[in-house]
Amino acid sequence: MATSHDGNQPLSGIRILEWGAFHAGPGSAAILADLGAEVIKIEIPKTGDPIRMLVRFGNFPVAKDGHSLFYEGANRHKKSIALDLGKEEGKQIVYRLVPRCDVFVTNFRAKAVEGQRMTYADLRPLNPRLIYAGVSAFGSRGPDRDAGGFDFLGQARSGLMLSAGEPDMPPLISQFGLIDQVTAITTSHSILTALYARERTGRGQEVKTSLLGSAMFLQYFNVLNGLIMKADVPRHQRRSTDPLRNFYRCQDDKWLCMTVAHHPTAWRNFCLAIEHPKLIHDDRFENRDRRFENREDFIAFLDTVFVNRPRDEWIRVLCEHDVFCSPVNSATEVATDPMSMANDYVIETSHRLFGHITAPGYPAEFSETPANPGFTAPKLGEHTREILRDIGGYSDDEIAAFQKNGVVDGA
């Protein structure tokens, strides 16, 4: 069960000011909020972050009771201030908050950031210890530095769309937000590194990440092979690849995946598990090279073997023989996977809109300062008055004037 922020978390006492939209930037601040950071999210009055309106993805609903799951997931734990940066008073409020924050995060394009006078050069004089994180589509230098981009383009440009599937298939897209999320992870990692460096040196700095750079780093070995071997790693072709590093359909139409080492002991255990001990000394499969030479026949044979039992029964048998294997889960199946549940990769929590729910947990354990992967995101402008008063130091009269002039909105 998720617990509340209580000061006993890794980033307790760290304050982040976020000016971003959708997920690649805001998602990084959400990860840091899981670790206890206080995150103030700047949103446009009346409409807020456009991700609030994302209730369908193509024909697939991504909202519950009219509330976007994408918004909730990307903005968990945060405080929302509705602030009009088109007005000079709005910018001055940001400038007043910056010295009271440790981190500033944005994923707006360079031209927009420059036009709003929110660059690192603009904010650094206000707070030399500030960690400034900027997220772009394809990088901060080069001909496309000002280009916009979303998750799909990160998948496309990085080579990811041609790494999955089989050779004759068209490019494949991964749903949902895979590269947005890995960019959020990369950005949070970079911010943490800069915070650590600040503890040692006392100096703030600017960090820059991108969809493209993060997606390429995710595929480190594919990219490494391409650079050094001057060849693309071939897409996985199930019927003509390593039979022991493959996946198979079972009797109940579910799939299992396995990776069997080519060590004699592992090979023997596998043959015993599938109840074909004669294979152990079969000349066609006596070693790794012979198994690969006869891979198509061997895969066809294994297809006839695995189809005779349900997947979970095969998983049990293979594990009893110490054969490395796993179910091929769907998203709904992984939510009830016993290992997901036992390790809090899926947690039970409460949500003010949805009630008692299960949600993604945090992927690492801390013995002394646990993370809190909660799920509830703020209403638009919910914390405007609180932030202006408690952090900005504005009086009630000043706040009332801001509201009257349309500089801020919200409670």
User: Helix share of residues?
Assistant: 25-40%
The largest sheet has its strands arranged as: 10-9-8-1-2-7-16
Helix and strand content put the structural class at alpha/beta
Low-confidence stretches: none
What is the CA-CA span between the terminal residues? Answer: 30 Å
CATH class of the largest domain: Alpha Beta
The total domain count is 2
Q: Please describe the biggest sheet, giving its number of strands, its sense, and whether it closes into a barrel.
A: 7 strands, mixed
**Gyration radius, to the nearest Å?**
26 Å
Which topology of the largest domain does CATH recognise? Answer: Rossmann fold
Beta percentage is 15-25%
Please state the second-level CATH architecture of the largest domain. 3-Layer(aba) Sandwich
Could you report the average pLDDT, rounded to the nearest whole number?
95
Could you give the count of β-strands? 16
CATH superfamily of the largest domain: Crotonobetainyl-coa:carnitine coa-transferase, domain 1
Overall 3D form: elongated
Number of helices: 17
Explain what this protein looks like in three dimensions.
The strands form 5 sheets. The protein has a 7-stranded mixed beta sheet. The chain has a 3-stranded antiparallel beta sheet with strand order 11-12-13, with helices on one face. 36% of the residues lie in helices and 16% in strands. It is α/β, with parallel strands linked by helices. The protein starts with 14 loop residues before the first strand and ends with a strand. The chain folds into 2 domains: 237 residues, Rossmann fold (3-Layer(aba) Sandwich), CATH 3.40.50.10540; 92 residues, formyl-coa transferase, domain 3. The chain contains 17 helices and 16 strands. The model has no long low-confidence stretch (mean pLDDT 95). Helix 1 packs across helix 7 and helix 7 crosses helix 8.
